[in-house]
Design brief:
Layout lengths: L6 E2 L1 H6 L5 E4 L9 H7 L1 E2 L3 E2 L21 H10 L7 E5 L7 H10 L3 E5 L10 E2 L27 E2 L1 H5 L5 E5 L3 H5 L16 E2 L15 H10 L7 E5 L6 H11 L3 E5 L2 H5 L12
Parallel strand pairs: 1-6, 2-4, 2-5, 5-6, 8-12, 9-10, 9-11, 11-12
Antiparallel strand pairs: 3-7
């Protein structure tokens, strides 16, 4: 059995549930606990990956959600029962915003991974609750064997890479139109966007059912933003998370040669030496 693509349906997952590692990636910008949501109800057999501790390094000058060290990421994956030869399906309930981050990280390292299209809302089966006999750091899986591998430099961009980009590179901002334009908010260190960037809100990738719109629709959206099949793209967002939905959408559309600017606006906006553009 192999994953049918970067997106899988709930029907496919239900048929193959015992052959993949399912990862619940729920996390909320408003401070709600993804872990508590997981404990209340999750897909049977799913393990919980925390964005802040499993999928990110400590916050600092490089942003709110920098990449963890290869050693830390390998250790987190092993604890969750994920091996380098595992097939992983990630889900959340925010239009694949966080699940896309795990997908991108694993895909970058050559590990077979997909996102559940439609997220938890697409799952018609029953939900399991947390086994109260386990400690919060334990999972109902044997530990995995995950090879510690450096993050491949061709899959991510630094702030200096973004600053040095020319007109041939399309820089896409996955944040909302309001944040991109520079409207005051409680999230961003400064208000505005990277000069020359184009707004591609990640919410446009999915419909009201949280499923990704068709590849043709995605292709049309990105074409309007100047992305062709071989266009070099740098994707960013608030902190390198929701931009991964755009990377997944670009893959589904078959356009762009894309990298993630991991530090994203949480790094760029906090650096007073970096220029900011506003459109309000």
């Amino acid at each position: 059995m192999s994953l049918p693509g970067d997106l899988v349906t709930a029907d496919w997952l239900e048929r193959n549930l015992d052959q993949v590692v399912v990862v619940d990636c729920r996390w909320y910008l408003d401070g709600r606990s993804g872990r508590s949501a997981y404990e209340t109800g999750h897909i049977e057999g799913a393990v919980f990956a925390d964005l802040d501790t499993d999928l990110s390094g400590p916050p600092g000058p490089e942003g709110r959600h920098p990449l963890p060290s290869p050693a830390a990421f390998a250790a987190a994956m092993e604890r969750l029962g994920i091996s380098s030869d595992s097939q992983v399906v990630a889900y959340d309930d925010l239009g694949s915003m966080v699940a896309g981050r795990l997908w991108w990280m694993l895909d970058s390292l050559g590990v077979s991974a997909a996102v559940l299209d439609g997220g938890l809302a697409s799952w018609d089966g029953g939900l399991a609750t947390w086994d109260s006999g386990l400690k919060r750091h334990e999972v109902n899986r044997d530990p995995g064997t995950f090879t510690e591998t450096p993050w491949p430099p061709d899959r991510y961009a630094t702030a200096d890479d973004v600053a040095a980009s020319d007109a041939s590179i399309v820089v896409l901002d996955a944040r909302s139109q309001a944040r991109f334009a520079g409207q005051p908010n409680d999230i961003d260190p400064r208000f505005g966007h990277i000069p020359g960037a184009r707004n591609a809100p990640f919410a446009n990738n999915t419909g009201t059912d949280d499923r990704f719109v068709s590849p043709a629709e995605l292709r049309e959206q990105f074409t309007r933003l100047g992305v062709a099949s071989d266009t070099e793209v740098i994707a960013y967002c608030g902190s390198g998370v929701s931009a991964c939905s755009n990377l997944l959408a670009l893959r589904a559309a078959g356009v762009g040669v894309a990298r993630l600017y991991v530090g994203s606006w949480s790094e760029w906006g906090a650096d007073e030496a970096r220029s900011v553009e506003r459109s309000v």
